[in-house]
Design brief:
InterPro entries: Split_barrel_FMN-bd, TR_PAI2-type. It holds the Pfam family FMN_bind_2. This is Transcriptional regulator. It is a single chain. By secondary structure, this protein is an alpha+beta fold. The chain has an eight-stranded antiparallel sheet, sandwiched between helices. The longest helix has 16 residues.
């Protein structure tokens, strides 16, 4: 990923918020002669760490393909994103682009044992169910849960390097940014309210990096 100062997301709290709020990730590792190994999986933050440490699980056969613990990998967490039409700008000349928030966590995932994996499964369910009026708990079906859990493999990733990017029109004049935000809130075809909210937050908290 091209890393540019104007779009760099360096604040640990912002990276944590991205992972916590968008827990669907892509794990990429080197599969040797077979080519890259790519899997998609839910992730959560390690509740015992206040940094950027991630817990995840995937099908055991996927984990074996990645050879967890043996190979370096990249975990990609995608946040809000969307198409930005030149018509949003009402100025120019401009061309279409895509705004997005993403984090790449580079490191060697540490495989977890059966009990630790079950704890990750339980914590993952708790995280995503927390917003529901009557949250489901894995403990409600513990016998069944423990019967199928061996088909999964948990891991813990302490990133050796984090490359996080929030490309949210920070390189555009303030009046243009405001038009893009309004369009992403209201456009009948390309509305992305969550992306508009991210741009609004970046505008209010981030420094002007156009220089």
């Amino acid at each position: 990923m091209l890393e540019q100062r104007v779009f760099a997301m360096e604040d640990v709290a912002a990276v944590r918020a991205l992972i916590s709020g968008h827990g669907w990730a892509t794990l990429v590792s080197d599969g040797g002669d077979a080519g890259p190994v790519v899997s998609h999986l839910p992730v959560i933050l390690d509740p015992e760490d206040d940094g950027v440490v991630v817990l995840g699980h995937l099908a055991r056969r996927d984990a074996e393909s990645h050879r967890l613990g043996e190979r370096q990998a990249v975990l990609v967490v995608q946040g809000p994103h969307g198409y930005v039409s030149p018509s949003f700008y009402r100025a120019g000349p401009y061309v279409p682009t895509w705004n997005y928030v993403v984090a790449h966590l580079h490191g060697r995932p540490e495989p977890l044992g059966p009990e630790e994996t079950y704890a990750v499964l339980s914590a993952t369910v708790d995280h995503f169910e927390a917003v529901r009026p009557k949250p489901f708990r894995l403990a409600d079906v513990e016998e069944y849960g423990r019967r199928i859990a061996p088909g999964t493999a948990g891991f813990r990733l302490v990133p050796a390097r984090i490359a996080a990017k929030a490309k949210l029109s920070q390189d555009k004049p303030a009046e243009v940014v405001e038009r893009v935000i309004r369009a992403l809130d209201e456009d009948p075809v390309h509305a992305r309210p969550e992306l508009a909210a991210a741009m609004r937050a970046a505008r209010s908290t981030g420094p002007d990096r156009r220089a």
